[in-house]
Amino acid sequence: MIPLTKLQREIMTEFYNIKPTKVIYNKQERKKIWSMATERKQDLYINNIIKNECPALAHQILKSYDSGRNIQSAVFSECVYAQTFANMLQLNDFFNCLEGDKVIPDDVLNLLTSYNLVPRYVYSNDDKTKMLIQAGGCNGIDSALITVIDLNIFTIEFKEPGAKTSEPDLPKYGEDGLLILTDDFIERYPQFQEMMEEHIGINFFEVMGNNIHKFTSDSVNIAVTNNYTKKYADVICTEDRKGYLVMLPANQVSLWAEIKGEIRPAGRNHYNVWTPRALKNFLIEKGAIFNNNIVSININELKTRKERGGNGKISGYKINPLFFVYVKDCKINDSIISFDINKVQQLNPTIAGKLFFKALNYFKVKGYYNM
After folding, report:
1. What confidence score (pLDDT) does residue 43 get?
2. CA 195: distance to chain centroid?
3. Which of 2, 72, 185, 290 has minimal Cβ neighbours within 10 Å of its Cβ?
4. Span 321-331, mean pLDDT?
């Protein structure tokens, strides 16, 4: 057995000395809440029950109403898992840093900053000597459990039973569509070097529409394990197949999860087009007509792009899996759709390690580490 670090042993011992606890909302309840949140329902369930039982989740849902964007599933589960863990530790006082609550001492704030963490929500005991802090930041982990007096910090990642460790944008390819391995990317994301090197020469114009999953187990294991080393996570919290919250050492996740790698030619992030010649060629192949910057094309040559969250609303039109244009930037006359070619957006490829805790069992984990 791989030995635990001192911090891992301390926080896992505390966790497993508390009776097994199921997450505050099971999968069926979370599905119901998710459905209401994406449908923008302002009812008593959201405003009262969730506010009392999981105020961080309520705040995130209400924020999604204001922004017009659906709450992300990772944020959803993070709030639920953090509240469950706070309940286990009897951290009953809740503070919302996003709404201006100032409860974190300056020395603790400085410590969080050193971990690239920006506080969002705080769960504290009555005398504020122990705090679970939900945090944000692209280079930081999800949460930190801190004993204020001695500034002892335990760093925590919350992950759904099926989740990605991280998913950075790959370097932008050129007009030829070929994957580029840059020194800057490797310096920022060294955990993905082996996975990328296994696909040097891949052409995104040839594989668009199909995600890539063929990697060696060694390269994926490096990506997953080193991801949490780089982000300073001591442990991961997720739920097992019966809904119990489980804690695992972050550097041993491959013992408990099925891990996979993935390259997505069309990731989540989009930018102004960086391969304009390739875009024009794709449009010509579809019979587009050009009048200076204005493109006219039969709408049947394009596919619709739906808003995230399952509400079915059309947000744009796909030229192909890599290029799209927003509805608001289009004009439709009968079967012809027109738009300024400079309004087209290009989706950036991404790379990720994925975890699947399909067979996880709280009691097996506890027994394995002799807790």
Report:
1. 64
2. 20
3. 2
4. 96
Tell me which DSSP letter residue 232 carries. Answer: T
For residue range 334-345, list pLDDT tens digits in order. Answer: 999 999 999 999
How far apart, in whole angstroms, are the C-alpha atoms of residue 30 and residue 328? 33
Rounded Cα–Cα distance for residues 257 and 231 (Å):
19
DSSP code string of 58-82? HHHHHHHHHHT-PPPHHHHHHHHHH
Domain boundaries along the sequence of the chain: 6-159+232-248, 160-231+249-268+348-371, 270-347
DSSP 321: T
By the 8 A CB rule, do 148 and 128 touch?
A: yes
Amino acid at 259: I
pLDDT tens sequence across 11-34: 999 999 999 999 999 888 888 888
N- to C-terminal Cα distance for the chain?
14
Contact 111, 71 (CB under 8 A): no
Reported pTM? 0.79
Tokens of 12: 């896992």
- Model confidence at 132, pLDDT cuts 50, 70, 90, reads very high
Distance CA 279, CA 289 (A): 13
